[in-house]
Amino acid sequence: MIPRNEHETALRGLLQQFPVVGIVGARQVGKTTLARRLVSDRKSPVHFFDLEDPTHEAALADPKLALESLRGLVVIDEVQRRPGLFPLLRVLVDRPGNAARFLVLGSASPDLLRQSSETLAGRIAYYELPPFRMDEVGENMAERLWLRGGFPNSFLAADDTQSFVWRTAFVRTFLERDLPQLGFSVPAETMRRFWTMLAHYHGNRWNSAEPGRALGATSPTISAWLDMLVDALIVRKLPPWYENLKKRQVKAPKIYIGDTGLLHALLGIDAKEILMGHPKSGASWEGFAMQEIARILGVAWDQCYYWATHQGAELDLLIMKNGQRIGFEFKRTSAPAMTRSMHSALDDLKLDRLFVIFPGDTRFPLHERVEATGLSLACAEGLGPS
Questions:
Q1: CA-to-CA separations, 55 to 49, 61, 88, 105, in angstroms, rounded
Q2: Which residues, including other chains, have CB under 8 Å from residue 101's CB and lie 6 or more apart?
Q3: Cα separation of 170 and 123, whole Å?
């Protein structure tokens, strides 16, 4: 078992501060395992309900009767199956002298987030649990993490073949069971074709017209399907940054599959040798490195942007941190160099710093305010002083 100490520490702090804490994340990302580790050493009573267990679900047939007398920590897993519990949780945590706190686990479905935000405003804190990251598995496991992705069962599989089999099964189960349970009624085969199209868009600007033509669906329908996968924390949209310039700037978001292991499963990439020669190899590594950089800087995905002009200038990632504008380019090469786009980004965006991230373990200057930094070094030592 790989410890997830950073997440445990953060969640312990939230549990002290809020009466209700929600761990959200994609299916099979490790929410239940983490919750059980959190409660393993608690001295106060712990009550665990798994709503996929028929016995536990039956116990909550009358949730007020089942929950109102409990003290200590109440854990409710797969809470998205019973979004109607949230109004009751508000009543319970607002009781004078309330001695219970609640830890709810679930996929981030629209119903789940809407119900909780409407009824538990100011009482709940959400924590998104991502797949494994490099600081958890070690820099020496970077290539395995890139190929297999960070879902625990995939990363920890005995070999690459078993990992690929698990991810293929995950895709099928997600389409046939999980999406319908989250309230999405799209035929599984249609969504499979759409998800595979998104895999080919990984790292590219989104245009709903092309998949719409291929699937015979309208642009609003395609956008709704995309939002389904974003809501389920399976796909990420990277929004564009607009600057007050005379140049025409790109307004479409970029699309990334949230886990490279799932990306590779959708593309049929089951081995390192195939990945290295695949046309999407560079875009895959870009998405992998981008999520690691966001983690290093401690920024959420919704604080990340990219920038591009219709004249061809582009910056892979723009982050605002401590009053600074920090840019990133991701290059899967051993010898990164300055480009015209980098010069344009430095000047037009008035970047304080620009890092060129590459698959190495060294760092060296490329230009004033520009540094080439190996990803493993950035993970081990950070990005250096401002």
A1: 9, 10, 20, 18
A2: 15, 19, 20, 21, 72, 73, 74, 93
A3: 33
Distance CA 264, CA 270 (A): 7
User: What is the set of domains in the chain, with CATH numbers?
Assistant: 5-128 (3.40.50.300), 134-381 (no CATH)
Of 146, 144, 149, nearest to 159 by C-alpha is 144
- Tens of each residue's pLDDT in the chain, 386 residues: 798 999 999 999 999 999 999 999 999 999 999 999 999 888 889 999 999 999 999 999 999 999 999 999 999 999 888 888 989 999 999 988 777 999 999 886 655 666 676 788 889 999 999 999 999 999 899 999 999 999 999 999 999 999 999 999 999 999 998 888 777 888 999 999 999 999 999 999 999 999 999 999 999 999 999 998 998 889 999 999 998 888 999 999 999 999 999 999 999 999 999 999 999 999 999 999 999 999 999 998 989 999 999 999 999 999 999 999 999 999 999 999 999 999 999 999 999 999 999 998 899 999 999 999 999 999 988 886 54
Predicted model pTM: 0.93
Sign of the Cα torsion 269, 275, 278, 283 reads positive
Run of H or E residues at 365 = strand 363-367
Q: Which two tokens stand for residue 54?
A: 């028929």
